[in-house]
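Regression test case RT-17, inverse folding.

Input:
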């Protein structure tokens, strides 16, 4: 089951606009952003972005909620966490000393805004 979810998630992220939208929503977590705001920030037509967000939603990476006339999209942090853990679950054959740099690189980002993570060099600009 996890393998199929990972394939769906990675497949959804394997396109530039979707990856950009997902990263923007990760930065706005947990509140999310209105679809129109995402479209403007990425300079993508709203109907095009809507199709991309639907693909991310079908993969379980984002969820949406209507607020008045807006649709707010937010990253599903539990699914993101599960995907990352699935990818790293057998890291280095269980030799934790080899995984320490990966864990250390992610540690400053726990609960932090993207800016401190970028300053720590753990998030690309």
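Golden output:
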């Amino acid at each position: 089951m996890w393998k199929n979810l990972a394939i769906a998630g990675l497949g959804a992220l394997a396109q530039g606009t979707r990856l950009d939208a997902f990263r923007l929503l990760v930065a706005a977590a947990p509140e999310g952003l209105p679809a129109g705001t995402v479209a403007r920030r990425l300079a993508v037509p709203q109907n095009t972005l809507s199709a991309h967000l639907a693909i991310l939603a079908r993969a379980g990476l984002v969820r949406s909620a209507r607020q008045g006339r807006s649709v707010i999209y937010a990253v599903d942090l539990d699914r993101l966490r599960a995907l990352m853990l699935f990818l790293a679950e057998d890291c280095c054959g269980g030799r934790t000393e080899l995984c320490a740099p990966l864990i250390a690189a992610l540690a400053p980002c726990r609960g932090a805004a993207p800016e401190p993570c970028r300053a720590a060099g753990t998030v690309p600009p």
